[in-house]
Amino acid sequence: MTMAVTSVHTIQTAFLVTIFLLIRPSLAHNHIVGGSIWSIPLAADLYGNWAHNISFEVGDTLVFRFEMGLYDVVEVSQSEFEHCTAEKPFRAFLVGPAELHLDEGGMRYFICSVGNYCFLGMKLPVSVQSLQPPPPGGSSSPIPSPVP
């Protein structure tokens, strides 16, 4: 009987994890950076404060709305982000709107490399959370033994 119960729990757990992984991508969000357009902000910490109040997860998309030629979006290292440089960018988007799919967890850093716009606040740090499947076995209770 114990082996049968263990098999049922294993099958239930596998089923729940599969359902979670199938449904999860449909929960992805498109985030309009700053809630509006990507441009020089009135306050230098606008984009950092905006990102701090949002939960970004793997599968989400950042949407940078900007006019080509006036602005750009460059993904850089933490050091380049802190110094507002883009000497070795990971990638650059010159045409807006730019959509960037968040495909892995961790910190991501974005700046505008036009003129001194980064120093004026056009920089965005994003903490991306990895997908976490439900714990094995879930919260189900063990099946009681039949009473004789």
TrEMBL record:
Keyword Kinase applies: no
Keyword Signal applies: yes
UniProtKB keywords: Disulfide bond, Glycoprotein, Signal
Residues in Phytocyanin domain copies: 29-130
UniProt xrefs under InterPro entries: Cupredoxin, Phytocyanin-like, Phytocyanin_dom
Cellular component aspect of the GO annotation: plasma membrane
Secretion signal, residue range per the UniProt entry: 1-28
GO MF assignments: electron transfer activity
Domain of life: Eukaryota
Name of the protein in its database record: Umecyanin-like
The organism of origin for this protein: Ananas comosus
Lineage per the UniProt record: Eukaryota, Viridiplantae, Streptophyta, Embryophyta, Tracheophyta
Encoding gene, per UniProt annotation: LOC109709052
